[in-house]
């Protein structure tokens, strides 16, 4: 099976040029000018289009068991929405809770994804406790090709770890050469503030942000950085939302701590006024860390442009309107999360590159290449190069559209970005050489996605066949 993409403009994290791309089976085998059409090859004309490496979402939740319910998506629905939005690989948080066995959780997560995802995927392994079995289990999981961990400094007694457990996790990660991703908020402060607010009769979604102020996130970020500094481990702050946390992470970078920063698309596009809408309208926009004052949004854009923020993910975690009603009369019971997997690339393109000051190469880097490098997928993923997987996004920058739950593919009955304009969309998307999206519609093979087993350095991972 072969495919020739002709006349497109290839844009990567560090290059931009017009060329044809020839794909045999799953791999890019030639890139060149005016290539003749080999017998039997399907030709896709990409005239006037940009050709990007498949985008990578480094922070996704699928069917997450959380806050007395489960996030809406399955691997089948999330992966199709991802592909329509140009994401060809996602990294899911594998999150067994504190009461569950780590290895059983890992096997359960793998079994849910296997044969169901249309795009490629891998996991960050959640560490929600550190008991007698944890070290051995984590060694086994790393040997199985899962070379990044996830810790929560929030969600006390559920996903959250205590400081001694954080220390043990980082010490092991350092030994194994594994990167640790972290949700950074001070869990105890959040719990106290939540009780105080509820006691004062402040029960609506507008109090979610008040219960998790920027200081709570800055403290968590600073604490994580301190633990990285002491252990020498490599860390990655997830879904950073505000200026004080950014300051803490950048200060750590400047003093040589091995720390990288992710923010997520809702924090660039939405501010806290969305969550201050009355009742369930506000609840639709409740996530953690919460949507912030608009001034933080400007700071995130500037930091992204300047290279201080390394990646942009989604923290995709959809709950429908009925689920959001679980928090009627008590904001602490609103399931935290917003659907975004389908919209990340188009929103970042529109409000970053098309209408903002984000350089097109930075766009590719933060939405694809950097995550591939950080998480051991490069150059198999995140690149347009001979030998790389033929995961490509043929992007139409002349497309004009509006995001709406009435037209989106994600399995949720509302969109957090309802009514927002987009200035482009993926026209054709390929995953390992097969067309998965045409004219914005999923045409791929369900369940073809592969678990990407990774090594601990930035060398190509071991693929599970
Ligand atoms: N972010 C969020 O609100 N929900 C998903 C869980 C998490 O990432 O903290
Ligand atoms: Zn989180
Ligand atoms: Zn998350």
UniProtKB/TrEMBL annotation:
Keyword Metal-binding part of the UniProt annotation: yes
Record InterPro entries: Amidohydro-rel, Hydantoinase/dihydroPyrase, Metal-dep_hydrolase_composite, Metal_Hydrolase, Metallo-dep_Hydrolases_sf
Domain (Amidohydrolase-related) ranges: 50-435
Post-translational modification comment from the UniProt entry: Carbamylation allows a single lysine to coordinate two divalent metal cations.
One GO MF term attached to the UniProt entry: hydrolase activity, acting on carbon-nitrogen (but not peptide) bonds, in cyclic amides
Highest taxon above the source species: Bacteria
A Pfam family that the UniProt record links to this protein: Amidohydro_1
CC per GO annotation: cytosol
Cofactor: Zn(2+)
Keyword Membrane: no
Modified residues (N6-carboxylysine): 150
Keywords of this entry: Hydrolase, Metal-binding
NCBIfam families: D-hydantoinase
Family: Belongs to the metallo-dependent hydrolases superfamily. Hydantoinase/dihydropyrimidinase family.
Protein name: Dihydropyrimidinase
Organism: Deinococcus yavapaiensis KR-236
């Amino acid at each position: 099976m072969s495919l020739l993409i002709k006349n497109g403009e290839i844009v990567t994290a560090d290059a931009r040029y017009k060329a044809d791309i020839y794909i045999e089976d799953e791999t890019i085998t030639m890139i060149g000018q005016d290539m003749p059409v080999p017998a039997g090859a399907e030709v896709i004309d990409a005239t006037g289009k940009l050709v990007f490496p498949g985008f990578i979402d480094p922070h996704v939740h699928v069917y997450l068991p959380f806050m007395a319910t489960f996030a809406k998506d399955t691997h089948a629905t999330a992966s199709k929405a991802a592909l329509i939005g140009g994401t060809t690989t996602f990294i899911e948080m594998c999150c067994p809770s504190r009461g569950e066995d780590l290895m059983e959780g890992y096997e359960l997560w793998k079994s849910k994804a296997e044969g169901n995802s249309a795009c490629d995927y891998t996991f960050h392994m959640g560490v929600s406790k550190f008991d007698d079995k944890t070290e051995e289990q984590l060694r086994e999981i790393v040997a199985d090709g899962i070379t990044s961990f996830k810790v929560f400094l929030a969600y006390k007694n559920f996903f959250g770890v205590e400081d001694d457990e954080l220390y043990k996790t980082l010490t092991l990660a350092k030994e194994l050469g594994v990167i640790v991703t972290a949700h950074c908020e001070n869990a105890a402060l959040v719990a106290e503030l939540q009780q105080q607010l509820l006691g004062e009769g402040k029960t609506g979604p507008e109090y979610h942000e008040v219960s998790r102020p920027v200081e709570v996130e800055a403290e968590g970020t600073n604490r994580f950085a301190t633990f990285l500094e002491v252990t020498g481990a490599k860390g990655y702050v997830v879904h950073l939302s505000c200026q004080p946390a950014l300051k803490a992470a950048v200060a750590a970078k400047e003093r040589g701590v091995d720390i990288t920063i992710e923010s997520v698309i809702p924090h660039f596009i939405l501010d806290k006024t969305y969550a201050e809408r009355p009742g369930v309208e506000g609840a639709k926009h409740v996530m953690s860390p919460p949507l912030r004052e608009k001034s933080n949004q400007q700071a995130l854009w500037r930091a992204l442009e300047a290279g201080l923020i390394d990646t942009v993910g989604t923290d995709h975690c959809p709950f429908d309107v009925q689920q959001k009603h679980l928090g009627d009369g008590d904001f602490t019971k609103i399931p935290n999360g917003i659907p975004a997997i389908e919209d990340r690339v188009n929103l970042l393109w529109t409000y970053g590159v098309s209408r903002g000051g984000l350089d097109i190469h930075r766009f590719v880097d933060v939405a694809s290449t950097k995550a591939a490098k950080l998480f051991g997928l490069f150059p198999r993923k995140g690149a347009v190069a001979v030998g790389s997987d033929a995961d490509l996004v043929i992007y139409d920058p002349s497309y004009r559209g509006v995001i709406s739950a009435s037209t989106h593919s994600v399995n949720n009955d509302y969109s957090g970005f309802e009514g927002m304009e987009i200035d482009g969309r993926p026209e054709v998307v390929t995953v390992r050489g097969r067309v998965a999206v045409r004219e914005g519609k999923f045409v791929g093979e369900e369940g073809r996605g592969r678990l990407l087993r990774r090594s601990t350095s930035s060398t190509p991972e071991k693929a599970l066949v």
